[in-house]
Amino acid sequence: MNDKKLKDLQKQYDNRPIPKELDFIVENALKQGKKKKRRSPQWLLGTAAAAMLFTASLNISPAMARTLADIPVVGSVVKVLTWTEYKVTEETYDADIKVPSIENLENKELANKLNEQYRAEGKALYEQFIAEVGDSKANGGGHLGIDSGYEIKTDNDQILSIGRYVVNTVGSSSTVMQYDTIDKKNEILLSLPMLFKDDAYINVISENIKEQMRAEMLASNQEKTYWVKGAGIADEDLFFDFTAIDAEQKFYITDSGKLVISFDKYEVAPGYMGVVEFEIPTEVLQDVLVSNEYIH
Known about the structure:
Layout lengths: L2 H12 L5 H19 L2 H7 L5 E5 L4 H8 L10 E10 L3 E10 L5 H31 L5 E12 L3 E12 L1 E12 L4 E3 L9 H20 L31 E3 L5 E5 L12 E5 L1 H4 L11
Parallel strand pairs: 3-4
Antiparallel strand pairs: 1-2, 2-3, 4-5, 5-6, 6-7, 8-9, 9-10
């Protein structure tokens, strides 16, 4: 491309009008930031005395999402938005449930299916929490909490991996993760089995994970603990003996094209280990992969 074309493109970009919707989003974000700075500890203590339900819906239209997606930098953050947030703040009861929404997939059927699922799950979590609070109050009170939201694991030209978490607090806490990995080029939702030729991947991945578990325990001088045999733990002390992953084990694909297998808190290790993940070396998977389109 010659200098004249570059200058023409630069001029077109400089003269491009910024959507009014973007002005509103930026202005609103700045206002919210200023409000947060002015809040004092006394204000926070005051809110703890009363229950508060806050439901915020962004409901940004697909047309606006496409407009924002065309703008450099901003486009990388509009693919997944917080559609609704359920929030309850009371002295001993806290809920913060953020519901994601995928707004710019051309495959509307897939986007609608996922978004409907996210919204149904978010609403169910909130309604269940409210019911449990009612039961708790009827039985003398207690402490209940739920924190649910999402994080973008990968967002590149080909892959969008969304991790969704639910942390329940009743005495101790539990954490459950779910992942959706989307091929943005072909507009399809990926599953673990479809990445492999046959079910031989289950044993290949499981054996590698067990090797990683034992190596981590040895390297950490037993500060890390996994429920797996052959790691210096007596069989009678094993709460659970991990032998193999599920065929549909939770997973995501990293930005560099690596497969990560995820286990929920308490699934293969004590609670202090939290959610644990294992990146599987691609060379270990090479013979069982359908292709290197996604994993490389």
